[in-house]
Design brief:
By secondary structure, the chain is an alpha/beta fold. It is built from eight helices and 14 strands. The chain is globular, with a radius of gyration of 18 Å.
């Protein structure tokens, strides 16, 4: 994945700070509301700073696994939920595709609540005609499919790592150092983790081929990515625990990854995205 500053390579124009960043479609997943690891304040800023015709919530929005162990839910988490409901009320097409951490919502597949549609998976057609299968992705995770108890163990270990990250990065912030993620480091450096990610991505690409679509959009593994896998466009929108990323579609159908940093930098510099057409194709953007 390229640095956050390189996620967007588009024309910027100075306009008023009250204006917001508009996209045709936004995908976010793995918010993990109900855990202390959820970056709810930054997520809330992102949601308030952006608008879209359609907003996809691609699973693990609420972390039922953690809430069963220990209740954690502060006002910021309430504000996130209220903001999404408000978007739906004002006309945004909000679609919730449950994941493994909020799997209890799957009993309500094909129902609508408060203007939010609950779907297991569906095909999204971009403005330029690409047909993208949207699903969370947990069914293609061998650990969850074959040994769910191990997934629970891994989730507990991940929670411990995140807690260490919070303590360690509080110290780094006081020292004027940037954020550093142990879990992301391990994902990229540990051979088995890299193999797991590759197998997951390949399995999703195979599913897209089987369904006869142009690409696939998912979450689950907390690794934002856009890449071609054997002619299939694989997109992962990342997470709001560490990556703070979203997948977005512009008015012309181009898909890109953006981060909280990208959107907030636009506000701080009094610059916002108003022209969704890139001057040059970005390294993580795909069109056509």
């Amino acid at each position: 994945m390229k640095p956050a500053d390189q996620f967007l390579n588009k024309k910027l124009h100075k306009i008023g700070k009250k204006d917001i960043v508009r996209f045709r479609t936004i995908w976010i997943s793995d918010l993990h509301l109900g855990t202390s690891g959820c970056q709810a304040s930054k997520l809330l800023e992102f949601l308030r700073a952006t608008e879209s015709e359609t907003l996809y919530l691609v699973g693990d929005i609420i972390d039922g696994w953690q809430l069963k162990r220990r209740w954690y839910w502060d006002q910021t988490h309430n504000n996130v939920v209220q903001t999404v409901l408000k978007k739906a009320k004002k006309g945004t097409n909000v679609i919730f595709v449950p994941g493994n951490h909020d799997e209890s919502i799957r009993q309500f597949i094909d129902l609508d609540f408060g203007g939010i549609k609950v779907r297991d998976e569906l095909v999204h057609t971009t403005a330029d005609g690409k047909r993208m299968l949207v699903l969370h992705g947990d069914r293609f995770d061998g650990v969850i499919a074959c040994a769910k108890w191990l997934a629970y163990v891994g989730d507990s270990l991940y929670t411990v790592i995140l807690k260490f990250n919070q303590i360690f990065n509080n110290w780094r912030a006081r020292a004027g150092l940037p954020y550093w993620s142990l879990s992301q480091y391990l994902k990229l450096k540990v051979k088995n983790a890299v193999s797991y990610i590759t197998q997951f991505e390949d399995a999703l690409a195979d599913e897209a081929r089987r369904k006869g679509v142009d690409g696939i959009i998912c979450g689950h593994i907390h690794k934002p990515e856009i890449r071609d896998i054997g002619g299939v466009l694989y997109c992962n929108d990342g997470d709001w625990v560490e990556s703070l990323s979203a997948l977005v579609e512009d008015a012309h159908g181009q898909l890109s990854l953006v981060t909280w940093h990208d959107i907030m930098h636009s506000f701080q510099s009094d610059e916002l995205l108003t022209d969704m057409e890139p001057e040059h194709p970005a390294g993580v953007a795909v069109s056509g």
